[in-house]
Amino acid sequence: MSQGYSVPLEKIIDNHNLDVVYLPKPADKILIKSAEINRPGIVLTGYTDYFDSLRIQILGWTELGFLLNMNDEERNKALGYWLSLKPAAAVITRGLDIPDYFVDACKKYEVPLLKTEEETSPFLAALIAYLNQELAPRITRHGVLVEVYGEGVLITGESGAGKSEAAIELIKRGHRLIADDAVEIRKISDKTLMGNSPSNIRHFIELRGIGIIDARRIFGMGAVKPSEKIDMVIQLEAWDSTKAYDRLGLDNEYANILNVKVPAITVPITPGRNLAVIVETAAMNNRQKKMGYNAAKDLMHSLGMEDIKPEDKEVDIWQE
Q1: How far apart are CA 201 and CA 181, in angstroms?
Q2: What's the whole-model pTM score?
Q3: Active-site positions?
C-alpha cells in the first residue's frame, strides 16, 4: 500500500512527541517506507523468517520483561537475532526505563531507538493510522473538495463550470473548504479516500473576474479544513438536451478513484441553477442513503410499483 512513498523519521518524532535515545544519523535522513508495525516477539528467540526490516518495531512490558529474565549471554544473542536484521527503528512505550545493554545493542547495529510515554496499544493504533495516511497511494486531480453537513463532496467538471463559485456560496452558508483547483486524493484503506490541498495553494480560491482570494482570511478559520474523507462526487457539466439525465436516482452511479467506488451524480448546468443548494441537497440525500433510506425506492413503494433492481454505472469524472 505504501510502495513508492516515504516519510522522514523526524516527522514521526515531531508528530508523536517521541524522545530520541539514539540515532545513527540525522532523523530527517532516515526514511520510513512501510505503514506496517511489528512487535519483535518470536524474533527474539531466533526465528527470523518473514521478518520485514522496513517496519518500525514496538516494545513494551512484555518484550523488556522477556529480555530481563535472560542471562547476559542469552540476552546478547536474542538482541543480535533481532537487531542484526536492521529494523527501521525501535520504540519503547510506557516511558519504561531502557537498560544500558539495550541502548548499547542499538548503537552496535545502528538501529534508531526512540521512547514514548504512551501505552503500547494506543500508540500502535495512532502510529498505524498516521503512517497509513502519510504513505498512502495518491493522485492529484482538478476539482473542488468541500465539507457539507459532515459529508466530503468532491466537485468536478470542466474549467469554468462553476466549481469555485459553488464553493464560495457553500462557505457563506456555513460549510468548509478543503481544496480548490487541485485536490490531492489519498487511499488510506481499501474503502476510504482522504482529500486535501497541496500546501502551496491551501485555502486559496480562484474566481474569474476577481482573481485569487484567501478563504481563511476572508471568511475566517471556521471556513476551512485541512483534510476530509471523500464521501461522494458531483460532476458538473453543461446541459445537453440530447442526453437523458437520471431523474429518479434509482441507479447506483459511482466514480472509480484509486480502485475505490465513490457514489457519484452528474448535475447539468443551466443559467439560474443554484449549485450550492443542489450540492447541499445531494450531500444530505447521500447521507440518508448511507443510513438506509432511499427516497426514490420509497416513492416506488408508495405508488405500488415493483422494486427495480438498481444498476451500477461508472461515471468518468476526469473528462477535462
Answers
A1: 9
A2: 0.79
A3: 142, 163, 181, 247
